[in-house]
Write a structure and sequence with these properties.
The structure is a homodimer. Chain A has about 260 residues and is an alpha/beta fold. Chain A contains seven helices and six strands. In chain A, α1 links the parallel β1 and β2.
Chain lengths: ~260, ~260
């Protein structure tokens, strides 16, 4: 398959860099075509602004939503944005790899999302009616593709457990896995998470590579997180609240997975 | 009081810009000293990298954690970082204002957090022992100060409700309110959230300003979100899991608020 790794770490000789290099070699050895968007090496522009359209703002004030749509529809997006969109369309599977900084992705990767996920490409797709609220949450231009997070953190697994002080890792990643990946259509695989990065020695690194290889070898067969599709009857439209008879008594992120 | 507004929107004539201008005027009229970090106007550098230390990386490879610490301890941080830290120390109350982009903050604001929240300033503070796991989650250099989010989103309130498809707004904001604000010591006030920004006309804007004024007038008296302190007995150390006898049966973000 075609695999895109979007990678965000400032130091090539870091643990993240070594894991990325291992993943590329391992996937290529298995016969896959691999592209890497190494955001730091690309000096990726993180801040979404009027320069993201070759025509600038249409009116005297910049509108992040409408100007992105106009640039997308007219083929006048900044070339760095269009190039990343092409890579996403090329890929069968997308891996987002990053260190968890302040319980989310590094700014440079957030800026990749903010800019590449343009209106017309990742949102604002499909009809809005009383039965269908846009092609999103399981539908969209990236439907049929798979995605997985590869995340490292200095904290302990217990700190990110069900009652750990940082909050459960799956809940911390929900805005990314559900809100950024499932939203434009990806099937989202359970994340590959590395804890206590400061304690990873040569032996530990070998073990991590072994675990990662197992995940890379099963990218096409691993069951995705069973997030609920928006437009297939589970949600009231346009309120977009879960139907009363589904997951009764549940609220919060957990309600949006099929049981 | 001294109030710092950290503001992230690319267009001054946006709804966010108008709300920020209103907040500044209203707070100044009430006698407060106000500083604004207008990140787009400052052309804030979003990507954390080796240039954040005036000495670059200490070794042949850049370490985001150790190099930030060395620069902080030796007074060799990039001046833009040190200047923002000074503003945080000056402030009694900090407002983070931004549009919700992909269920989190814009990249430029995340980059403010990634870089200003240096090792030694916002984390890595205080002793680590079997009774105290660093000055964090309610303790730290920013303890005694208050913080509040001002967030706008195009989506409807119901989409962000208890069973709304995006997930509850309080849970989406937990990584910011608990992980970024409470972590270095802030008392965190309930957020000011504006929904359906596309529908805000002149009348709606007047109503919003009225609601915002009520929040700004009560910054010093509003009860903070009752997040649990890390080092006062609620958590096992070093596992940092909530004690079994507290919030029994609860897991996830909700367990970290006192009932």
């Amino acid at each position: 398959m075609n695999i895109l790794i979007v990678y965000a770490h400032p130091e090539p000789r870091s643990l993240n860099g070594a894991l990325k290099d291992f993943a590329v070699r391992h996937l290529q050895a298995a016969g896959h075509a691999v592209q890497v968007s190494d955001l730091y090496a690309m000096d990726w522009k993180a801040a979404l602004d009027a320069r993201d359209s070759l025509d600038g703002a249409a009116q005297d004030r910049f509108d992040p939503v409408l100007d992105a749509r106009r640039a997308y529809d007219s083929g006048r997006q900044s070339p760095d944005i269009a190039h990343e969109q092409d890579k996403l369309l090329w890929a069968d599977t997308v891996l987002l790899q990053f260190p968890l900084w302040w319980f989310s992705m590094p700014a440079i990767l957030k800026g990749w999302v903010d800019r590449v996920y343009a209106n017309g490409f990742a949102y604002g797709v499909g009809e809005h009616s009383d039965r269908h609220w846009g092609d999103r949450y399981g539908e969209g231009k990236l439907a049929g593709k798979r995605a997985m997070l590869m995340v490292t953190t200095g904290g302990w697994a217990s700190h990110y457990g069900a009652r750990g002080i940082n909050g459960p890792i799956d809940d911390l990643l929900f805005p990314i896995q559900h809100g950024i990946l499932f939203y434009p259509g990806f099937d989202v695989l359970p994340p590959f998470v590395v804890y206590r990065t400061g304690k990873v020695d040569e032996h530990g690194f070998g073990a991590l590579c072994h675990q990662l290889a197992l995940r890379l070898d099963t990218l096409s067969t691993t069951a995705p997180i069973p997030f609920r599709l928006q437009n297939r009857g589970d949600y009231e439209i346009p309120a977009l609240t879960l139907r009363d008879d589904l997951a009764s008594g549940l609220s919060g992120f957990a309600a949006h997975r099929r049981s």
